[in-house]
Amino acid sequence: xxxxxxxxxxxxxxxxxxxxxxxxxxxxxxxxxxxxxxxxxxxxxxxxxxxxxxxxxxxxxxxxxxxxxxxxxxxxxxxxxxxxxxxxxxxxxxxxxxxxxxxxxxxxxxxxxxxxxxxxxxxxxxxxxxxxxxxxxxxxxxxxxxxxxxxxxxxxxxxxxxxxxxxxxxxxxxxxxxxxxxxxxxxxxxxxxxxxxxxxxxxxxxxxxxxxxxxxxxxxxxxxxxxxxxxxxxxxxxxxxxxxxxxxxxxxxxxxxxxxxxxxxxxxxxxxxxxxxxxxxxxxxxxxxxxxxxxxxxxxxxxxxxxxxxxxxxxxxxxxxxxxxxxxxxxxxxxxxxxxxxxxxxxxxxxxxxxxxxxxxxxxxxxxxxxxxxxxxxxxxxxxxxxxxxxxxxxxxxxxxxxxxxxxxxxxxxxxxxxxxxxxxxxxxxxxxxxxx
Length: 437
Hints:
Helix content: 25-40%
Radius of gyration: 26 Å
Oligomer: single chain
Shape: globular
Distance between the termini: 31 Å
Structural class: alpha+beta
């Protein structure tokens, strides 16, 4: 058996299938928007104008939206991004609310579950030596918002807003942004600055300086927000930085009307940015944490998550089916062409991370009874098996080398984006080719 030849042929088949699918797809591939960033760098002034309504008064997908995000350490020691669901009745929110219940003794929080290892895990994110300013699993709050950058002409040339970004990390020449501004800065802009002058931020240019830990003038001062009429304060920073910030400010009413017509980014349901993380991901990543809490305190969080997960999967399937039917009707109507808008592409996108189908007790029993003895031939045929993590391997019930098939004890309801083989939607690793998600 020429393994190299087999692998190459499988690659060519997969490549051909992917290209054909992309070519024939009526909606085209779904992509995360490539936002143009307006980065709020520390110890620099940025001049910009915010546009859109506040999160509490949203009318359009382009209006500002509040997002809560955590980087959580999973049961297996890996980290994952979690976008919190806004529903206060979400089972994970309920779990954390009960676990972290407290009262004040003077200014100190006294937790009801003080000393509990699960509470400590939440407060420290399971780190041995967390830094003083870290908040454990607790979310950071960001306001995603469109803005017009005054310090270059990108918005003017492209007739489009930029997306506010808080931080950027560069990995192998690729930039990964933390989108939005911290809620504290948004409050400073709207509640303090706009509140003091009695106007909406869409009518004023702002000069914002974000301080670093070493440059902030006081413990509770992290930003300075100035609007176009505060010339002396703006001039002080211009003199310090050698940049005429006042020259970037625009007051033209005619230009204001033109700029308000600029195209804006849709901020709703952006995978990994504003779309709530499916509950199945939490079930997969924090199963031990959740079940320990249920057992210790007699809660039923896991059962609630199973129900919530089933609801999310049903809603997703119904949503996708509805889009299929809607587009099927359009395709038979040859009198009109159908233009796919950015909004439609966003709505048609599947959940951003793997939607884990919970493994019940009966399924786990079957896994133990059907343990697979992996052979060298299996590892040669399926390169993904050699590094396959245990939480994936335990779901493999049979490996058919001759027909190039791996069977699982749960439904293979998804497809690997690299090798095009069917795998369970909950997997974050492909046992066929070794792709990680």
